[in-house]
## 1
Amino acid sequence: MSQLVKEPKQKSFFTTLAESPSTNEFLKGIWKDNPIFVQVLGMCPVLAVTNTAENALAMGFATTFVLMMSNILVSLLRNVIPKEVRIASYILIIATFVTMTDYAIQAISVDLHKSLGAFISLIVVNCLILSRAEAFASKNTVIPSILDGLGMGLGFVLALFSLGAVRELLGNGSILGFSIFSANFQEWIVMILPAGGFFTLALWLLLFNILKERRNHG
Amino acid sequence: MDESLWYIFINASLISNFVLAYFLGICPFLGVSGKLDTASKMGGAVTFVMLISSMCAYGINTLLVAIDAPFLQLISYIVVIASTVQLVEMFVKKMSPALFRALGIFLPLITTNCAILGLALFQTNKGYGFLQSLVYALGAGIGFTLALVLMAGIRQQLDFASPPKVVKGTVITLLIAGILSLSFMGFSGLGG
Amino acid sequence: MSTVATKPQTQSSKMIQVMGGLGALCALLIVLTYEGTAERIAHLKDEALQQAVVYVLPGSTSTVEFYIDADHHISTEWTENAVPVFAGYDDAGQLIGVAIEAAGRGYADVIKVLYGYDPVKEQIIGFYVLESKETPGLGDKIEKDPSFLENFAELDVSISSSGSLNNAVVTVKHGEKKNPWEIDGITGATISSRAIGVMLNASTNEWLAVIQKNLSVIQNQGK
């Protein structure tokens, strides 16, 4: 009994880390407030570019970069920007980083840029980025904003990848281009069609709902 | 390769439906498709903004090509769209406060509606002329409205059914959208 | 309430200053990125096009871009509204063929292709899909299906003295190809494969005569 009481006093390194606010800023985006599965924000790219896992990852990291950079700049300028023009300023900042990302991706691989198409430019209108700028970065200092951006971004990557992987696996029989099944595998073409995007996302959300339901009852 | 106006219209509204084939404008599609009435008004507002921003985008692009500054494309498009939405918002607020309340948060959200920016970018990529751009915008807007209204109709029926609790809301809407998307595939080939 | 009352409205001059400053900062960032990447992007795009040209003209090792102007003159100088074609040469500078772009309406959206034309054998000797949004798994077989792509190893596009094709290029049902100018279609991708036939027919009718007429210009460039 006495041992049990004592124990909480000496917190392990991991408990301390897990309870510190900065870890929370980082982790909330990945699981508790996952932008796709929990907040259902920024859906367009999620469905459009997740027909292969590679596209999904590229899109995810591009979004993470924009999210982090815009969070940094918004947070730095939070006391300078008058509240009347804040949304316009955020959009300007986001559009700038998206244009930069667009050119960077072209410089890395023309093929990748071609398969993502206009959806890189469309990161601008991803509600997730604007909502993080407005709800978090404009009220917090730089370090938490970076962590918030990184966490939300990685949560976004995770969600995109879990969609892309399922769709590519079933629709093409491969993951990241590596064949998984034998040559006899009959591809589920519907999975790489637009409809497959809707179905896969619906099923992932269903899974999350069931887990939530279980926790609430258990 | 000349594309007839009719083909552009059919392509934008049915074959490559912005919502069901390109996944543009999913947020309002999921958010405002609960009631038939709101859905059709939202569709009208989006179509109107699309027409205006399509014209602006055409003008801007001509200007940007003339001064050879393609890197300003995205930033100027988004600024123009944001201001157009502001104008429409003020206009609706003044003319029809009831409609303004009904559209609520989604009117300013048209700014971050990917369908509008997507339209501006696609028409530039495809190299459409002025008239072609307008027809493209009209087709896209009508296609968007069609998807929204269809969805709202189905969801209103759904209110009388009782799906399991875990699929209520987003999940069932997405499943229906998937089925709608499959059925819209039947339109492809119309132009060929 | 009190906070609202004590907080003064931001002056418009300040708003303009902030937006102006922000605009300048953003413009600077964008221009720097553009300048930094422009050269590499141009290089990569060039390389990709080069690869496509070499792919449709098997055996070629170097390529030269030509432009066909409105009066059907071919030169290496670009003029307003000129149409680009790409000539491929082997190591000895011998002309292998000319790569031409064609576009047409497919099942879903416009399909763009590049095909290689051998002016001596008067055949299409290579084919590559540049851009297509055809249905994955069905229509996109025009890019991948090996038996369909075999059609373009030696497709007859000989022209008569009047400049039009002797036999129109046409896509036939799968397994019914009898003549060297017919394209063996794909089952399950009828419209997409037929679209390829239509666009090749239109494009060859338009450009082959021009290329034959200016053949010496193109041949000499390799030497």
## 2
Amino acid sequence: MNDIKITPEIVKEHGLTEAEYDRIVSAMGREPNYTELGIYSVMWSEHCSYKSSRFHLKKLPTEAPWVICGPGENAGVIDIGDGQAVIFKMESHNHPSYIEPYQGAATGVGGILRDVFTMGARPVANMNALRFGEPSHPKTKHLLAGVVEGIGGYGNCVGVPTVGGETNFDPSYNGNILVNAMTVGLADKDKIFYSAAAGVGNPVVYVGSKTGRDGIHGATMASAEFTEDSEEKRPTVQVGDPFTEKLLIEACLELMATDAIIAIQDMGAAGLTSSSVEMASKGGVGFELNLDKVPQREANMTPYEMCLSESQERMLMVLKPGREEMAQAIFEKWELDFAVIGEITDTGKLTLTFGGDIVGDMPIASLVEDAPEYERPYTPTPTRPTADVPAVNDLNKAVMDMVGGPHLCSRRWIWEQYDHMVMGDTIGRPGGDAAVVRVHGTDKALAISTDVSPRYCFANPVEGGRQAVAETWRNITAVGGMPLAITNCLNFGNPERKDIMGQFVGCLEGMGEACRALDYPIVSGNVSLYNETNGSGILPTPAIGGVGILKNADARATINFKAEGDTILLIGETKDELGASLYQKQLLGEDSGMPPHVDLTIERRNGDFVRALIENGQVSTCHDLSDGGLIAGLADMAIAGSMGASVTLNDDQPLHVSLFSETQARYLISADDATAEDIRREAKDAGIPVTILGKTGGKCLNVNDGTIDIAMSDLTSAHRDWMPNFMKNAS
Amino acid sequence: MKARIHVTLKNGVLDPQGKAIEHALSNMGFGGVDEARQGKFIELELSETDKDKAHENVDAMCRKLLANTVIENYSIELE
Amino acid sequence: MKSAVIVFPGSNCDRDMAVALTKITGNKPLMVWHQETDFDTVDFIALPGGFSYGDYLRCGAMSAKSNIMKEVIRRAEDGVPIFGVCNGFQVLTETGLLPGALMRNANLSFVCKDVKMTVANNDTMFTADYAEDEEILIPVAHHDGNYFADENTLDTLEGEGQVAFRYNEDINGAQRAIAGITNKRGNILGMMPHPERMIEPALGGSDGRKLFTSVMNRLS
């Protein structure tokens, strides 16, 4: 295959520009052969090199005293005290999931699990952030069914609970769904494993599944815009084997308990190539690999195929010399392949041999550091004029349509297909503000949330970026957690378009501001660009995955009303902020105006106040307000508590504003009368806006003496049934 | 020698996957499918050259592992 | 009470079972790898949930043929209490220690949720601490929990009091809403729901505890 002459067509097929090809030739001092071209193409793809995004990513805050390892490794690591660390990351698997939803989503989960256990963590929770096209689009049901089944199929089998996530529908995702998967793991702080290779002569070891022809060019596919015929690319989608992954987790953790491993890295996108290049690059060494030794599933595989295969459930390690036999015994016990395929050199090159010949010889530095970096031109998103958002005639109907509609209805149909309880530590199940998972064997718990409001990001990327970060912070706060750090999946359209690049830059600016103001750094992440079909891009979707800690897992809050007759309080102020709201979009079919402003000082002040109430045991019922505003939050709490509520809203604004405004930094809480009065006083003393809205109880959701009056039985069934009804007869 | 084994659900055992296929085909407008039953197909590459012995072996494999005779039937083809 | 948890490749509720046994009995169970052929004498053997061998071929089929199951079968014949949950139940039917088979859920989807069920027979060593017809809340998490047996077998199971638990609603299409059954002798229980996941209020309830205390009380 290396005899193939490199033509401009071949270069183009590999997703490289002419200028990029010239750069390769000058880096190598000669023309690359076919295998080498393939390797450059994946290493320099958007997916591996972050060539369009790196310049801007550097501006994000990544440090805090509790950050052990920020971006650049397989996953981020933070300190949670007592010698323990949390390791987590979120990653996209958008394009493969659109082409083959089950396998695309399943391998997305598998890949992110490997990123986390590679670093020495036992995965303890999976989360996700999913975006589909509008419900009426002919593919939506099929894609949703397949993605959910794939996430469950993989996560359930490996035995890591899928504890929550978010699911949105919007026409902009009709041809480009988003499947972002997040894994959170726990490790001992002094037992964290990194990917930098070291020690000339040390063995390079391949473990896990055999290599087949799966997913060749997955990394370049993930960096290309879709066209109508993309579905023909089906054979490149890899197939996941969660059973092997489970064995791989156990075998790796068993080996990690010894001192045999110097460096370890999973083989993700671009497989053997990217893992060996990254390990060598970080360690400043060279790798010599004998491809004849790579365990192969199919006959007659070429070096090109072996280097670019994206077969799943594989890892690459550098071991201390002399530990091979002991390591091999562990992998054989778990019935996994184990092969020494090469060694570390001091050449600074990736040298590949096959059948006695050298089939590739490339300077590592040129594959990584010399990768192109583009400061792509951009136009900032124009500021929108304020919108006047009118009232609808029938408020009862409006509430029913929203709570019982695609955007706010219960996601139970989804999460009941995920084993969210395995491992026995899920104490805050899906359906709340943040999932809560105990740190096994301790009084501590992790709070985890994934969020972004793409509507806001589209309307105003800076506000949207701020809001995405703030919302995870708020969700973690609402269960009583102290937010610590985030990971992200930056899903955008084609960065070669100035307006899209403007969205990207704007969102990052807002995210950075929020991270700094909330002491909430970014420790890992992933960028997915070119989410476009025929020139039509997705809403900018920087999905954020936040992690926080509860020092005492018993002091936490859930959203369900606990007792009839409790007082309901609103913390925070409601402003006239219906621009880019769900109310406007769903009920009026419009999208105009500015999204709600995120005042990070107020955000922090209100959140710290609410968290303290939960930590000191005054409050165990709390819900943050977001899409759909106050009435949506109230409905959630009433439905979850199987009881009604009666409230009075008299904040001098039109009722539809009080009900549906999406002003940020707000929480609803409920407590017995005496505690509620204490809270009201404490809030006043602290200068925090607080309003007593009414009481829990009864069989109806009642606002302003019957202006809204909905039977809880109707509201509950509308909320519960939308999705199961929608998904009937999906295939 | 190659052994081809078909494992199918016994008559009378509910086959939810078959039902789903039947349903999907009819939704897609394919008429005239009265019933769909889903099974498994397993192919084995055998070193045995004697057909009778091979059959005996494969039959034991089916009874002991490849099929669950509480709910499944199997058939063996050798070539 | 000394217990053992059998671990197959792909088991994933082995730790949960061990945690529950440790919390309730006060003793850490022995974890026994599937390739073993023998292990210390114990009072109680648990086959945990999970996806042994990835549920490939049929759920529980490959584990049922493992080395260790030969020994488990021998001990079952000696009267040692054997308790299979979820995948463990599937292994027990695949070995023939319990009648019937567990098929794909009728709606074809994996289901994970708390379900209300009834103790159909509280006169067994696994259920004695429950009241007669007690309604309990225990989670399920399975893709293949649809219990099937022929009519005669079902009649026998019911006639002999071998149906231990019944779902209060249709969860997976199981015949006669069967959630768990014992063998005729009464020393083997297989059930799809996970009592080891309901042993403390923080996890959503404690209705699973009595299953373990029943066995403990019987053995002491």
